[in-house]
C-alpha cells in the first residue's frame, strides 16, 4: 500500500529537515510531498504569528494554501503551521496529522478527533537541548561568568579574595527543580555529575520516581526555602500561570537566584523585577519572557545579577531533527498496524 505524506515545513523547521528525519519511511511505501508555510517570513514575523496562534488557535489563520495541497494526502506533517478545522475538512483521505513538536497548539485536535484523524506529536524532542542550556545558565549565573566577561571587556581585571564574597562550589549547593518531567530529570542527571543536592517539586510525579532519579522530593514551599537556585521546567497552563510571584520570591534566600528556560508566563514579571531591585533574591538567568522580544527599555535590562538570552534554549540542530525522528518511529508503528506511542487524545 502506498501512503502519501505531505511535509509542511516552516522557517524554523524547513521541509528538508523534516525529510531528513522521516525519509527512511520511503522503504515502507511512503511517498513524500513538500511545501513551506511562511517560508519567506522573517524570524520576527514568524515568531509573532506562531505566538499569537498559541493564544488564538489555528482557526485564526488563513491556511488555504495548505488545504489546497491535501488531495490524496494520507499523512500531514507540520511543525508550527496551522491545522484548522477548515484544513481537516478540505482533506479527502487524511488519516494522520503529525506535529513535529511537543505541543499541539497549532492543531485543532477536536476537529481531527471528530473526523477520525489521529494526531501525533513529538514530546521531548528538545529535552536534551533545554536541559543542557538550563544547566549552562545556572553555572554562568552561579560563577558570574557574563559579568566577568563584561568587566574584562571594559578593561577591568577584577579578582575577589574575600571568601564571604566568593561563590560556592556546585557540590555544596541545593538546586531546586520545579517540574520533573523529561527536562527536569535531564537537569537532575547533569547536576549529579557536580554532586549537587537536587530538590524536586512535581505534584504529578511519584516520590519514589523522584528518588530513583537522584533527587529529593519536596513541596514547593520547602524547595523555595532551601534552594540556592530554582530552575523551572513546567508547561504553561491556567494552573501554572504566575507560579512564582511576590510571595514565592519572599520565601527564597537573598543569595538564591532563578533560572527560567520554560515559559515567561510562569513568573510574575513585575514581582521578579521588584525582588531583584530590593535584593530579595540575588539574580536570575532567563531565556523566556512574558513579552517577546524583550522591549529595549525593560527594567530587567537594568537589574544587576541577571543573565538574559533570546528564547534559544531549545534551538539546536539535533532538536530540530528530533521531532521528525520521533514522528518517524510512531508512523512506522502506524504503518504496521500498531498503536503509536505519542498519540494526542
Secondary-structure element pattern, one letter each: EHEHHEHEHEHHEHEHEHEHEHEEH
Distance between the termini: 27 Å
Mean pLDDT across the residues is 96
The helix content is: 25-40%
List the helices and strands and how they pair.
Blueprint: E1 3-9, H1 15-22, E2 30-36, H2 43-56, H3 64-67, E3 75-78, H4 85-90, E4 96-99, H5 109-114, E5 118-120, H6 127-142, H7 145-153, E6 174-178, H8 182-192, E7 197-201, H9 207-212, E8 216-217, H10 220-226, E9 229-232, H11 246-251, E10 257-260, H12 269-277, E11 283-286, E12 306-308, H13 317-335
Describe the structure in your own words.
This protein is α/β, with parallel strands linked by helices and 345 residues long. 35% of the residues lie in helices and 15% in strands. The protein has 13 helices and twelve strands. α1 (15-22) packs across α13 (317-335). The longest helix is centred in the last third of the chain and has 19 residues, at 317-335.
Q: Which key features would you list for this structure?
A:
alpha/beta, Rossmann fold, 2 domains, 7-stranded parallel β-sheet, 13 helices, 12 strands, 35% helix, 15% strand
